[in-house]
Structures are given as structure tokens and as C-alpha cells.
């Protein structure tokens, strides 16, 4: 919606015959009212399990941002109103952030999952509204339908498939602003300072410091390094600076990694990993990103570290996730660590494992993963940061495990909780061998101390757990 107004500023005096006529000065402005639009898809699985949770109780989507405000979808499996007696399901869109008199248009769509696209749509868009857009007075205000769909009809419809519903929500937040006369502008090119510094490095002109890395020598400029890295600044200009700048030796780093580090310092971009390694391989690129992340952390290059984290997240794979997870833990990359743990805990990746608990010095326990995804990376993970494996167990809370206390006593149940001392809480518990332990048949929920645990079998699909267990016991006897 666009409104146009003009303001006339009369600078002339009352007309007289002695004065020559003059044209009034005219200025213009434009008031523009429009919507800032966004949408969110909300998938509701386990509909049959959500029934009976209670009238007025809801399942909420994650919050999403549109027009500078947070929004959330609320689905009521048993309805929102007591008077409907759970006959209808209710669906609402709510303002989830602070706001006053937020005006918006909404559309709620229940998707037809038969492929015929006969969606159930309630929309403000594309039609005239007598009273204008809907106004939400404060945080928590809602728009929607208490009687969105009769529940019995919904359960027999094509909107419900595999016990799953899919809702699409569109929000258009009304915004108004006033524009003055357009001022012509000249387009500006993007910053090219990185190009200039990069070419300076390539030319080798004016270099005043050399680095020896793994048998190779690299020349650079002290001022550039000091401006970009606090570590280089201390090393080159601080109280404990290196006296010999003709050749500073860099330990514990490979030459291609240092070359990539210099590339970022001068060009302000991450180098092409394939060109740097000479290999057209995702594995080689991931390995270089891992080394470069460690180097970035070492020299205080936070932006480079984030670039490496982002690249490792995109290229996460089953044969590299363990070393990436250990790297994230050691260098405090919390976002990367969270992605790795979620990836490992996916059922298709965690194909089964036997976790062995070994007593050390009578009080300290650590984990030995005998087989998780069949990779060497988990041996490195076990040695470098074993407590991360506890977090891995936390990420599979809610899945079925078998906890063995003694060779002939084991419990199968749903992992409810595990703490830093490796104490386990199981629910829906059954004893693995009821014939030999009938006294345990009455145990439904149990708490098992880490000191008593010998083995934990993670979901064993596709893994010969007995073979793994026998191998581990032979190893224990040998040690």
C-alpha cells in the first residue's frame, strides 16, 4: 500500500500589482506501508502420542524471525478450549518476543500429504480485510483457530501421514516509513585492501622477517603480521620479542598450514584447499581445515578459526568426525563440537558400539570405545579428551541400551540420564537374563553407579556385539 502526499511551502508575500509573480517552492515525500514477509515449516511427528496431553496444552515450534519480531506456532492436540471437550485440534501463531501493537497478516496451512495439494488454508493474504491487519497487543498474543479441525476427521484425512502433520505458516509484518526525494548515488566497489596486501606478499618487496617451517622459509612483513595477530605482535614487538628476526623457527606446524595462515593474514580470505594440498579430495581439504583451525587458535585469528569451523561443519563425515570432535574440544569450538555430537548420535552413523569401563587407580574411570563407526579417530578422541565420550552418551539419551554389571547380570532399558561420573539411570527396564535372575523381574527403573558398570551396549543394529564383548574381555584378561 503506497500513499503519496505533497507539502507546499509558500515563500512568497501576498500578491500586489507592483511585485512580479513567483512560483512557490515545492517539496515531495512518500509514505510507504508494506509487509515484511517470512515463513516457517513446522513438522509434528508422533501425533497419536500427543493426544491426551490435556486441553490447553500445546506443542510449540522453534521461534523464527520475521520483520524484527520472533514468532512461534502453537498446536493444541486436545484443543485450546475446555468447552470443546477435545473434539477439535487448535492451531495458533503467537508473538514470541517483546512488542506492542504489532500489526501483521497471517496464513496457516495444513499440508495435504497425499500429493493432491488439497491443503487446508486460512489466510489474510490476497484479500481485502474490513478491519485491516490483525494487531497483537503484547508478547504472547495469538491469532488462529480454536476449532481448526475436528480431530476425528483429521485422523482419517490425508493431512495425517505416518503419524505426522506438516504446517506451513506465513507472516507479513506491517511496516511504514516515509521517504524524501531520491538522491542519486554513485555505486562503490567492494573493498580491495586484501588484494593489495596479498599482492605485496606475492611480490616479496619490503619483507623484514623470515620464518622457517618444516624445512621451508617464508618471508613476511612485521607490521602486517602484528596488525593482524596479537600473538605475532607480542612475538615481534613485545617485551619478550625475538631478537633474531632474520629467521624465526616455527615448531609443530607443517609448511602448507603456515602458508595458508599467511594467505589469510594478507588476503583476508581462506585459501583454496585443493590448490594448497594438490589433492582433489574432501578428506584432504578437511584435514587441512583441521590443521588451519589449530593454527588460527594458536595465533589469535578468530575470524579464520570461524571460517575453518564453518568448513568443517559443511564437510563433516563419518571418517573424520572423531578427530574433528576432539579438535573442537581442545580449542573450545563449542558450535563445532555440538554439530559433531549431533552427527555422531544419528542412528545411521552410530551403528552400534560396545563401551568398556575400566577402573584406574581405584577411583578414576575412563571409557574405551571398542567399536564406534570402525574408525581410528575415536582412539585419538579417547586419548585426547575422554570426557567428550560422556557427552556422546548424553546425546543418545532416550535410546535403548544394555548395561552389564557382572558377567551374568545385565539390564536392558531406555537411557534416561548419565552424569559426569558415568552413573546411569535407566527406565522401562528389563533384566537381560530373567531365568537366572527372577528376583530382578520387578525392577522397572534403576540407578546404576559408574563404579559397578562393566559394559554398555549401544544400539546393536549391524554389529556383532558378542564378538566385540569377547574380544574386549580377552584384552582385559591380557592386561
From TrEMBL:
The protein's name in its UniProt record: BTB/POZ and MATH domain-containing protein 2
SUPFAM superfamilies for this protein: POZ domain, Sm-like ribonucleoproteins, TRAF domain-like
Positions of the UniProt region annotated as Disordered: 1-31
InterPro entries found in the cross-reference section: BACK_BPM_SPOP (IPR056423), BPM1-6 (IPR045005), BPM_C (IPR034090), BTB/POZ_dom (IPR000210), LSM_dom_sf (IPR010920), MATH/TRAF_dom (IPR002083), SKP1/BTB/POZ_sf (IPR011333), Sm (IPR047575)
Domain BTB: 207-266
Cross-referenced PROSITE patterns: BTB, MATH, SM
PANTHER family per UniProt: BTB/POZ AND MATH DOMAIN-CONTAINING PROTEIN 1, OS07G0655300 PROTEIN
Superkingdom as given in the UniProt entry: Eukaryota
Molecular function terms, GO-annotated: RNA binding
Residue span(s) of domain MATH: 37-171
SMART domains the record matches: BTB, MATH, Sm
Record's compositionally biased regions (Low complexity): 13-31
Role this protein plays: May act as a substrate-specific adapter of an E3 ubiquitin-protein ligase complex (CUL3-RBX1-BTB) which mediates the ubiquitination and subsequent proteasomal degradation of target proteins.
Pfam families in the record: BACK_BPM_SPOP (PF24570), BTB (PF00651), LSM (PF01423), MATH_2 (PF22486)
Pathway stated in the Swiss-Prot or TrEMBL entry: Protein modification; protein ubiquitination
Domain Sm: 388-462
Family, similarity comment: Belongs to the Tdpoz family.
Gene Ontology biological-process entries: cellular response to salt stress; mRNA processing; protein ubiquitination
